[in-house]
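Hello again, I could really use a second opinion on something today. I owe you a coffee for this, so here goes:
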Amino acid sequence: MRKIILLGVFICLGQFCFAQKEKPMQDHLPTENLEMRKDSNKKVNEPKRKNIALIYVPDANKIAYGNRCVTEETHKMGFEYIVEPTNIAGSKTWKGKFLNNLWVKTKLVVTRSPFWKLILNKKIKECRKMSGDLVG
């Protein structure tokens, strides 16, 4: 009888060991806090990460694709241009792209300004002048 009770206790203890959850990788890594007085591993001190929305364009004519300054400016506004031609296999449908772009642009009008496109075009022009893509 004792053996059966001991076996039951060991099985229950083993089940409790398997039920423990693994900590996510973010809990093991320190945050990017450089201040000496704050503990860097607290959730409140974790660096803020932005969700970048995507705007699909068929070609890279006016967006200065590959220019790092332009990419940084679009990330500051909260989106990124993705070049996706319509004729490649596996791409989104025109309806999916249209609805996605409509949602992202509406969000930009509300969060940034109704003139977000004019502001961005001005910043893209400045970035192109600084990098030598645009002369004049």
User: Anything to note?
Assistant: The mean pLDDT is 79. The CA atoms of residues 48 and 61 lie 32 Å apart. The beta strands are 53-57, 79-83. The first strand starts at residue 53 and ends at 57.
